[in-house]
Amino acid sequence: MKLSFIGKGQAAVMLTVFGVIFCVLNRAYTDMGTSLADTVVSVMILAVLLIPLAILATGSEQSVPSLAAERLGLFGKIIDILFFVYFIAAAGNILRRYSEFVSERYFPEASAAVCIIMLGAVCIYIAHTGVETVCRMSTVLIFMLALLSVVFIIGSYKDILSFDYSSVNMPKLSVERGFNGLFPIGAAGCVCLCVMCGGMGKSTRCGAYGGIAAMLISTVLITAAVFVTLGGYTAVSEYPLADSVIYASRGGTFRNDGLFFSIWTVMCSAVISLLAACGGHSLRAAVPKIKAEGIIGGGAAVVCALAEIFTGVSFCETIAGSPVPPMILISAVPLIIMIFGKGKKR
Amino acid sequence: MKDKKIPDEFDFENVSVECGLDENLRNIKNILGNTSDLLISPITICGVRAAVVCFEGMVSGLSTAHMVVRPLMGISIPECTGEKLFAHIRDNMILSVDTAVKDRYGDIIRMLMSGFAAVFVDTQPRAICCGIQGYDKRGVEEPSSEGNIRGSHEGFVETVRTNMSLVRRRMKTPLLRFELFPISPRSNTDVIVCYMSDRVPAAMVRSIKKKLKNIKLETILGSGYVEPFLAGRKPSVFSGLSITERPDVMCAKLLEGRVGIMIEGTPFAIIVPAMFTEHFQALDDYNFRPFYAVFLRYIRYTAFFLSVFFPGIYVAAALFHPEMFNSRLLLNLAAAQESAPLNLMWEALITLIFYEIIREAGVRLPQSVGGAVSIVGGLIIGDAAVSAGIISNPMLLICAISVTASFVIPSLDQQVTIFRIAAVIIGGLSGLFGIALLSAFMLANICAAENYGLPVMAPISPFSRKAMGDVAVRLGFKRMGKRGFTVEKLNGADMEAAAERELEREDDE
Question: Binning pLDDT at 50, 70 and 90, where does residue A213 land?
């Protein structure tokens, strides 16, 4: 199960996109300083958690799920199933939350379930084409991110210039708060590195740390932009980033939030597809006979998202929102492979 | 296999030529069903009976008389026998620069049909085939599908040998190789595989030749017949092949390490592998000054976006997100739309499908009538539709802009047409959300496609910084000439290994 070519730049952009999607879906913008501090702590925690993965995967041509299955036998296959469950839960969670956002804000004619099916269908196709395809989409996503930034800056330059930056108070950094906010979605992106590392070879470390650095920068900039444009209205907004985009386009001939929304949707489909494709990859590492693993992964994510909607039980959010699964998958699993898998490797 | 059975028209491929002239001529007639265009000229040379066989219209009458019959009649060999005569013709005479000795009916028939004349000598179980092709062919003209301002005005024609010479004239290097062989078991259509031997992996050439030889179609009447066999294995709307009608474009692609395939009977050559960004490059880019070429290139990128998404976005925004329009514009649009009875989506669909009908009529009809169709369809019916209130003016304008934009990238016409209509339908049913999903699908479709290990989205993704000199911008030749660019050097390209895999798959199949 070789992932023939995934560049460090592609990995970095995909992690950045995870940060953007977090900002789109984040309803809990409290205070600018607190939000920025939480983001910084989240990324610092992720950077520490990534150390075992960076040591294990650098130079390897196999993903962590493949390594686990190869070196740890049955136990490795159980780990691969855990990877699958986590990826599907994370994909289902983002799918459900984004579909709710779409249904509430841009497509009220359709229910969230319909949005899940539409977005899910595209994600199943993309996941079916494989992890490499999603990573290839990343370069176009860079262009999209650059375009978004330029449009936003042009639209809100007056707010950017007039904002009183001295009013921002950075609170004391707290590890406990670092596990909230960006952490769950950022961690999902970092778990994807466990699969993407199979194609990055020697540049895994560069991709991982470059990626979380890029994720930090993008998240900080977007968080700042939200507070700069919306000011005191941030806390009462349902979707602060979407509202800040609308607010920033108030002087223009056209309201450009349609452009932002379209690009967020493309990014979101890439994120969900990457998670689903990684889930499919993990499942195939455990059960090599399985075919069309991308379709299985994407389909499972859609089913989970629909189940959350119809049952009202947020089991995907429970799994994907908890810091424990990513900590196990990013750090503990690579450590176990390094410690207990060496003998088998020889 | 030296069977002595008399061959029939269905089983002659590997049957050996007989010794007797009469038997040979009878067999040839049998095989070809005594077809009317078969010409057999019996002659006697120094007392030995011989015959020149050819097809009417496939060889030049003058060349046959001057280059074959007259030299043969002038032969003088004392105590001549069939063997001596055949050896003399074979060893001492140059009837044509393209001469071959064949001893199987299959080979001889194939050569006759390619414009050769075959000389049979009594008592000799073989024939000398001389290439004196003289069939009528179209002259070298300006390509109809790839216009340009400052480049060459020569285009490929339907004859592969002429096309070969057009490429050779531009690339006087011993590293340029042409390999000609017949494909398709029934039509035996000549194809030429051409490549630069130092820039293309040998496995890739072998794989392409193998794929071509394995084509089981009864006939090959155009490049479209061959394309599916050379395209990547993953189904994709966007192809990993490109088509050109220009020898200069072919030369440029060969220098970049691709393989060209020219097919007898079509002026369109296939280039393997190809990238998506090439659709936005034109020969004139390299003749114009770089700053202007860069400007034109971004015009083409914009045109692609407009041609695919403009009507869809308009329909989506007007139906689902009218708040995104400027208030004055919204009032104007609403006023124009007030008299139109149809839903915007149906209006757009009708306009676009009507345009496709007019275009198809213009293409199929004779050129003299095609212009009239455009006038009647575009002006009279369009104007009448607006006056009658069936279609609104803004919709007509938007569809016209979109269609005009699609003319800028003719090589993507098929994909643009389908995605444009899809965008209108999806935009009309689900607004910008649908358009965004269609964009994601399209992007993934392009990114997933690859051919011979070269991703179609390269060099954008996987990103190759050096290649951006001819994608994001167009560098001047002083800088570009030093690059020695080949597609194999692009990030993510794995052509040799992919070709080996293709060969293995072909063997398995």
Answer: very high
Each domain of chain A, given as residue ranges in start order, spans 8-345
Task: Give ∠ CA B55-B59-B61 in degrees, rounded to 5.
Answer: 105
**Which of B321, B329, B440 lies nearest to residue A266, judging by beta carbons?**
B440
Within this chain, do residues B314 and B438 fall inside the same structural domain, yes or no? yes
C-alpha span between B78 and B82 (Å, rounded): 12
Do A5 and B430 count as a contact with CB atoms less than 8 A apart? no
- Classify residue B59: in a domain, yes or no: yes
Select the residue of B430, B437, B448 nearest A133 (Cβ to Cβ): B448
Q: Is B195's pLDDT higher than 90? A: yes
Per cent of chain B over pLDDT 70 is: 97
Distance from CA of A266 to the nearest CA of B (A): 5
- CA–CA distance, B301 with B112 (Å, rounded to integer): 50
In which domain, by residue range, is B318 found?
288-451
Among B149, B125, B106, smallest CA distance to B10 is for B106
Question: According to the model, what pLDDT value does residue B118 have?
Answer: 93
Q: Is residue B442 part of a domain?
A: yes
Q: What is the mean pLDDT of residues A272-284?
A: 96
B447:A129 CB<8 A: yes
Residues B83 and B126 in one domain: yes
Beta-carbon separation of B440 and A109 below 8 A: no
Check whether domain A8-345 has CATH 1.10.4160.10, yes or no: yes
Please indicate whether, in this complex, the C-beta atoms of A125 and B441 are within 8 angstroms of each other: yes
Cα of B188 to nearest chain A Cα, Å: 38
Q: How many domains does chain B have?
A: 3
Residue with tokens 């855990």: A82
A255–B contact, CB cutoff 8 A: yes
Whether residue B483 has pLDDT greater than 70: no
